[in-house]
Amino acid sequence: MAPVGPHPAVADVRRAVREALADIRRDALVLAACSGGADSLALAAALAFVAPRMGLRAGLLTVDHQLQPGSAERARQVAAIAKQLGLHPAEVLTVTVGTAGGPEAAAREARYAALAEAADRLQAAAVLLGHTRDDQAETVLLGLARGSGVRSLSGMAAEAGRYRRPLLDLPRSTTVRACRAQGLTPWDDPHNEDLRYTRVRVRRNVLPVLEQELGPGVAEALARTARMAREDADALDQWTEKAYQNCALSDIGGSVTLAVPELEKLPDAVRRRVLRRAAIAAGAPSGALSATHVLAVDRLVTRWRGQKAVDLPGGLSAVRRYGTLILAISPIA
Ligand SMILES: Nc1ncnc2c1ncn2[C@@H]1O[C@H](COP(=O)(O)OP(=O)(O)OP(=O)(O)O)[C@@H](O)[C@H]1O
């Protein structure tokens, strides 16, 4: 009799995890970050299966945000499932969520801080996150709606520092089926159904309409867009860095001087990135520097009519002096 292989969805998740761990050295510890939802539960189960076969150690971290009644008990249940799966260590990280930046951002900040602390303490080689292709599609749509550039359209990276996202090419439906096939009962976070959150509205209302009107495969196409946009953004970043080095006549703490004739040779996309890069080098806080600021500085290069200095965040100003553009703490002497 032919041996019965795993369910196709289970096999898909295991393959994705195996590929994501291919470069990790033997005996290293890999941790699954698991909320108990279908995506990260399927991820944890796949890690438990795959890691020992690759000579790796596998553990699990679950964060109790203490934001909902019963969250501590649920976190304990996730840790218990982890132990049954053979994941060790299986830790509950209890955090206190602040308020800065709104509830979602504050919870994310507390979660990543706890994951990073545990990963350092346990000397883990990698922490796996359960984001799927659908999460990626939602991220791209949210970026599009904000009117963002290619970097933002490139969504989430498959690998960023210690974090890896093995499921980024798999649909959420695969993780749901993988859990069912293994008898794992995921926890459905009520926040995932709460239509007050923009991301939930994108998931529940926007993507289904796009699929219905444009045909199936929209999520896949958006995830593909993210991959291509990431390559483009990486290339533009490299080009910008080279161009910056070429344009910068001086770059000394808090003051950057750029050569206007060199800036004029650059295509808009690169020149504006160079200007942004220069403003940050001069001390502008990147979060506060908007496209409008950069465009105003750009006009000192491309639409020069003797304008006055442009004010930038961080007490900076940009001023044109003959063939140079100076970005420095104002007032410029
Ligand atoms: N409480 C948590 N503890 C540990 N890891 C978490 C927690 N919440 C989220 N994560 C990690 O971040 C990933 C993305 O989280 P997000 O909140 O966007 O999705 P989710 O609906 O919780 O996903 P899942 O279906 O895996 O639970 C999860 O797949 C998981 O790896």
TrEMBL record:
Predominant subcellular localization, coarse grouping: cytoplasm
List of residues binding ATP: S35, G36, G37, A38, D39, S40
CDD domains listed in its UniProt record: TilS_N
EC number: 6.3.4.19
Keyword line: ATP-binding, Cytoplasm, Ligase, Nucleotide-binding, tRNA processing
Family the UniProt entry places it in: Belongs to the tRNA(Ile)-lysidine synthase family.
Function recorded in the entry: Ligates lysine onto the cytidine present at position 34 of the AUA codon-specific tRNA(Ile) that contains the anticodon CAU, in an ATP-dependent manner. Cytidine is converted to lysidine, thus changing the amino acid specificity of the tRNA from methionine to isoleucine.
Official protein name in the record: tRNA(Ile)-lysidine synthase
